[in-house]
C-alpha cells in the first residue's frame, strides 16, 4: 500500500513524526495528498512546524501520592500560555500519569496513555490548539519510607518547584527546608554529592585567583581549605546557613535540632539553563493581526 520511502517523503513535507506519518498513510490507503490533509486536520503538521521554536516558560509542579512523588516541568513559549487553564490541566494530566506509572525516561512518559491517547499525541494536539510549542522537559521521581516525610513548596504559582525528603515525621520542618531551597538555589544535598571533576575545576579557579592576587604559593593550599568550605556553604543545601536562623545555624544543624536529617532534594526552576525568547511578543501578535 505504501513504502518506507513514502513515510520519509511525508515526513519531509509536513515535519510530522515518523509514527504520525505512518498512521496518516495507513488511514488514507497510502494516498500522499490525503495523508497530508489528515495530518493538517489533526493539527499534527501545524504542531510539527513549531518543533524548533524556543519554549522556556511554563510550569514546574509537584505531585504526591503516599510514599511517591513526582517533580515535573512542562514548557511553553510564553508566560501567558503558562497561566492558561488548559495548559495547567495538561500539566496535571501528565503529572498524574507519571505518578501512577513506573516510567523512568521522557520517552516512556510520552508513550503513557490517558483515555486512549498517548501523552505525546496530547502534547501535539495542545500545541496545535494553543499555537505555541508545548514540551515536557523533565521529571524526577522520589520515593520515601514510612519513616521519612516529603516537604514541598511551589513558588510564584509554578515558577519554582522544590521537593525535599527528610527523616522523621514532621512535614512542617520538611516544608521549611523546601522553602529555603527554593530561595537559595542549592545545587547539591551535601558535600558528598559534589562531583569530583566539578570540585577539582572550582579548586583550580580558586588557586589561579589566589596566585593572581599575589598570595604566596606555599600558603595557597591552606587558604584553599577555607575557600572550599565557603563553596560548600553556597552550593550544598545541608551546608547553607538556614535563612530563618537567628544564630547562623546551617540547614543540616536546623534539621538535627528537630530530630531530622536531609535525605534528598529536587529543585526545578522553569527554563533554567535554557535559551530564552528574545523577540518582541507584542510585535509578533500585531504582525499576526495585520497579516
Short description:
The chain is an alpha+beta fold. The protein is built from 13 helices and 8 strands.
CATH superfamily of the domain at 57-186 and 267-285: Elongation factor Ts, dimerisation domain
Distance between the termini: 41 Å
Rg computed from alpha carbons, rounded to a whole number of angstroms = 24 Å
Q: What's the CATH first level of the domain at 57-186 and 267-285? A: Alpha Beta
Structural shape: elongated
Percentage of β-strand residues: 15-25%
Class from secondary-structure proportions = alpha+beta
**Overall pLDDT level:** 89
Number of strands: 8
Number of discrete helical segments: 13
Largest sheet: 3 strands, antiparallel
In CATH, the topology of the domain at 57-186 and 267-285 is named Tetrahydropterin Synthase, Chain A
Low-pLDDT sequence parts: 278-282
Largest sheet: spatial strand order: 1-2-5
| CATH architecture descriptor text of the domain at 57-186 and 267-285 | 2-Layer Sandwich
Q: How do the helices and strands follow one another from N- to C-terminus?
A: HHHHEEHHHEEHEEEHHHHEH
Amino acid at each position: 500500500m505504501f513504502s518506507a520511502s513514502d513515510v520519509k517523503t511525508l515526513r519531509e513535507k509536513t515535519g510530522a513524526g515518523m509514527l504520525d506519518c505512518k498512521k496518516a498513510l495507513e488511514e488514507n490507503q497510502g494516498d500522499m495528498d490525503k495523508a497530508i490533509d489528515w495530518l493538517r486536520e489533526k493539527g499534527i503538521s501545524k504542531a510539527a512546524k513549531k518543533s524548533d521554536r524556543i519554549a522556556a516558560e511554563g510550569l514546574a509542579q509537584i505531585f504526591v501520592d503516599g510514599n511517591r512523588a513526582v517533580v515535573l516541568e512542562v514548557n511553553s513559549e510564553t508566560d501567558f500560555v503558562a497561566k492558561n487553564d488548559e495548559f495547567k490541566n495538561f500539566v496535571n494530566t501528565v503529572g498524574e500519569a507519571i505518578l501512577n506509572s513506573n516510567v523512568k525516561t521522557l520517552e516512556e512518559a510520552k508513550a503513557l496513555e490517558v483515555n486512549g491517547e498517548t501523552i505525546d499525541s496530547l502534547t501535539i494536539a495542545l500545541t496545535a490548539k494553543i499555537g505555541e510549542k508545548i514540551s515536557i522537559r523533565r521529571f524526577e521521581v522520589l520515593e520515601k519510607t514510612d519513616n521519612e516525610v516529603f516537604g514541598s513548596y511551589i513558588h510564584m504559582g509554578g515558577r519554582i518547584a522544590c521537593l525535599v525528603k527528610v527523616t522523621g515525621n514532621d512535614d512542617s520542618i520538611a516544608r521549611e527546608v523546601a522553602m529555603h531551597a527554593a530561595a537559595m538555589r542549592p545545587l547539591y544535598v551535601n558535600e558528598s554529592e559534589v562531583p569530583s571533576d566539578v570540585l577539582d575545576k572550582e579548586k583550580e579557579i580558586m588557586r589561579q585567583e589566589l596566585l593572581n592576587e599575589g598570595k604566596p604559593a606555599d600558603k595557597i593550599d591552606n587558604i584553599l581549605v577555607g575557600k572550599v568550605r565557603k563553596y560548600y556553604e553556597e552550593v550544598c543545601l545541608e551546608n547553607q546557613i538556614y535563612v530563618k536562623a537567628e544564630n547562623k545555624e546551617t540547614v543540616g544543624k536546623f534539621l538535627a535540632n528537630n530530630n531530622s536529617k536531609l535525605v534528598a532534594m529536587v529543585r526545578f526552576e522553569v527554563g533554567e539553563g535554557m535559551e530564552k525568547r528574545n523577540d518582541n511578543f507584542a510585535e509578533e501578535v500585531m504582525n499576526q493581526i495585520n497579516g
